[in-house]
Write a structure and sequence with these properties.
two-stranded antiparallel sheet, 11 helices, 18% strand, alpha+beta, 347 residues, catalytic activity, acting on a protein, BirA Bifunctional Protein, domain 2, tRNA-bd_arm, nucleotide-binding, transferase activity
Length: 347
């Protein structure tokens, strides 16, 4: 038994000496496994108790427990000391120097599309218009039929549609709010509204087209509304948005819900009518579609077309933003590239 007692004493001395060399709490686990684990030398020595005489076993067992208790107490003491030292070091490293200058917070910017929509809204609000909103999931009844586009109308092909069911669809324009507004007004006049919002069409995304984009529809209804009122309104809008030298040009066109209909051009904002690459030498750039509200649309919406008339127009804020800021690819407006968007913090 004397030899075993000597081994226990040496084991204790070695273990304690190794423990004092440990300088990080993460290394304590290996020490604990080596000297106090199931496969440790101390455990192996305790198993030799069976080979001792009956009267020697209690003494040896007591000695084994003393060594185990001493090692566990030393382990806990060392663990506490190292944890306290590491915490003190961490606190020292995390001390804030209040004399250092603060970090600048990066400025955000209004998205170019949102900026253009806000400018257009401000212009029309100043002209006495109201802003209305409507559902993006629309019915075929409002999106097409009440806008003079019955089920078999060939003009439906002009707007390739996302159908959700036979009757529900993602609106292809904000024009349904023409009808909804006239129904809500129940024959009262005047009506002067604009309708900004997202619209959806089954279009291939490229530099000038997107399957989702924004549109601003305008509607005026009253007695004695003429085509000249439409041109005057759009001319005032163009001058407010692009400058007092701006002019508009109307060209005959076709839309099922207006008659007569027109494409509206502006003087090229790049060459001011001189002719350049952007306007393909014409001096004009197409900006929106417009026309007098079709009598059938008025009648179906509860207005007597023999007494009342009106005009409507629709424009794309993306198109205007691309002209305003010289953007050549519409996809840049939707890719959320901070390198692109950061430029508008200074715009």
């Amino acid at each position: 038994m004397e030899a075993l007692i000597v081994q226990l004493r040496r084991l204790q001395e070695t273990a304690l000496a190794e423990l004092t060399k440990i300088s990080a709490t993460k290394d304590l686990t290996n020490w604990r496994v080596q000297y106090l684990g199931k496969k440790s030398e101390l455990n192996a020595l305790s198993k030799q108790m069976g080979g001792l005489r009956q009267e020697e076993r209690p003494l040896f067992g007591e000695r084994v427990n003393e060594v185990r208790n001493a090692l566990e107490a030393a382990y806990l003491e060392r663990q506490t000391a190292l944890a306290a030292a590491e915490q003190a070091l961490r606190l020292a490293q995390e001390t804030i120097d209040i004399t250092l200058p603060g970090r600048a917070i990066g400025r955000g910017a209004i998205h170019p599309i949102s900026r253009v929509i806000q400018e257009i809204e401000d212009i029309f609000l100043g002209m006495g218009f109201s802003i209305v909103d409507g559902p993006e999931i629309e019915t075929d009844h409002y999106n097409f039929e009440l806008l003079n586009l019955p089920k078999d109308h060939p003009a439906r092909d002009m707007q390739d549609t996302f159908y959700l069911s036979d009757e529900l669809l993602l609106r292809t324009h904000t024009s349904p709010m023409q009808v909804r507004t006239m129904e809500r007004m129940q024959g009262d006049v005047p009506i002067k509204v604009i309708v900004p919002g997202r619209v959806y069409r089954r279009d291939e995304d490229d530099a000038t087209h997107s399957h989702q984009f924004t549109q601003i529809e305008g509607l005026v209804v009253g007695e004695g509304i003429r085509m000249s009122d439409l041109k005057g309104t759009l001319e005032s809008f163009a001058k407010a948005l692009f400058g007092p030298e701006q002019r508009v040009r109307l060209r005959p066109s076709y839309f099922p819900f207006t008659e007569p209909s027109a494409e509206v051009d502006l003087l090229c904002v790049h060459c001011h009518g001189e002719g350049c690459r952007v306007c393909k030498g014409t001096g004009w750039i197409e900006i929106l579609g417009a026309g007098m509200v079709h009598p059938r649309v008025l009648d179906m919406s509860g207005y007597d077309s023999t007494r009342y008339s009106g005009f409507a127009f629709g424009m794309g804020p993306e198109r205007i933003a691309m002209l305003r800021y010289g953007i050549s690819d519409i996809r840049l407006l939707y890719q959320n590239d901070l390198r692109f968007l950061a430029q508008f913090a200074r715009a």
